[in-house]
Amino acid sequence: MKILHFILGKANPDRANGVNQVIHGLAKYQSRAGHEVYVVGISSVMTTPYEKIQRENFEVECFKKFNSKTFIYIKDLIKNIDVVHLHGVWNMKNVRLGRYLETIGKPYIITAHCGYAVDRIKQSNYLLKLLYHKIWQKKLYEHAAGIHALTREESTDIYHFCKNDNIFCCY
Prior knowledge:
Helix content is 40%, strand content 25%. It is built from 6 helices and 8 strands. The mean pLDDT is 94.
């Protein structure tokens, strides 16, 4: 199977960020299992427009910006991909890519990385997040081929925000 992970960041296992750890682990073990794994990241802190980083058993192609050139590159890459794995919430880049995937009938999975936990949502911009979700993000989650939850509690949190019947827990 050919899998594309689309992320914000570089999947750096040395960072204390749990999202990086999850993505790095997924890509590493999917690759070890014989899948072709591609990781494309967007990282605005980069000093160059593009960088290829070797990780354990996979590479991360990092772009400084998600602009039209980056999107064209990703669209070309997707032609030979079986499934796209989007990571995170409150990310317009995921919404844009997800809408494109829907138009071409390409399945995608989303991992929310606990972004729907009530305490996390209420940390900042609570009402804006609810509005953003209702306008853009809800459709993305409801049309996903599957939603990956990291815990049973997270699957319950996600279910309160969208009615996708394929929320699954892998931990």
